[in-house]
From TrEMBL:
The lineage of its organism: Eukaryota, Viridiplantae, Streptophyta, Embryophyta, Tracheophyta. Pfam families: DUF4371. InterPro entries: AtLOH3-like, DUF4371, RNaseH-like_sf. This is DUF4371 domain-containing protein. It comes from the Eukaryota. It comes from Solanum pinnatisectum (tansyleaf nightshade). Residues 2-109 form the DUF4371 domain. Coiled coil: none annotated.
Amino acid sequence: MIQKDIANACAKETLKAIIGDLNGDYFGILVDESKDISHKEQMALVLRFVNKNGEVVERFIGLVHVSDTSACSLKKAIYSLLSVHSLSPSKIHGQGYDGASNMKGEINGLKTLIMKDSPLAYYIHCFAHQLQLTLVAIAKKHLDVEDFFDHVSNVLNVVGGSFKRRDLLCDHQAKKLEQLFDFGEVQKGQGLHQECGLQRPGDTRWGSHFKTLDNFIVIFSSIVHVLEVIELEGSTSSDRNQAEYLLTKIKTFKFIFVLHLMLKVLAMSNELSKILQKKIKILLMPWSFLILQRKDCKI
């Protein structure tokens, strides 16, 4: 119990220092949704403001459980959290969210509801988030690329469809790595050769497609091994047929070519995405000027 008391005391003192640094001035809000380990919807709130030293800073305020992710519920949760810290919604001079309809909707979106109370709370769709969505949308306009990502998604579903298959994948990776050590083809060292997983790429997660394809290449032989096992030992004919079909697809020259091509394209955009998220790149942060509220501030 004493550990929880100490943690709560530290949290309260930290928040008190953040609010004191804000000093009742204007601020912007950054909001995102997140599920905890029990899959309960939560809302994370970050304040962006100019501190007493004239520096633009971002400070995490807290996580709030929300019953649903409708715009009205999120607005109520934001206002409630601000009121706890004696912050007025009228001081909001900037909003930053993703591009979901409940966030940026022109009629009933969260940004519209807040702008009705605070007309100067201009909304900016995160640039890095826009970059990811644009790349995914453009890539899928090409039929071969769209088919490629469909096959990758199906492979991830099949190979990661059960704990048994995931364990089989990990075991094959470990055995292959041992062979490479024996032949002296790879070096041992702390932090090297971490286990690679297969997570599904998300259209709204920065760099997730790049990470997925990068891992796909690294453990390609293990993926093939698991599909071959399913093809022979699958519990149903549907599983066996699907594994056989995916094996024929991912072994083709076209699939391998597009895999390496998209990895190179996404590697370049991944660097740009990282730059767009750097704190030191003030010029790339689209609503710094909304918070500074200076006539001579030009971006």
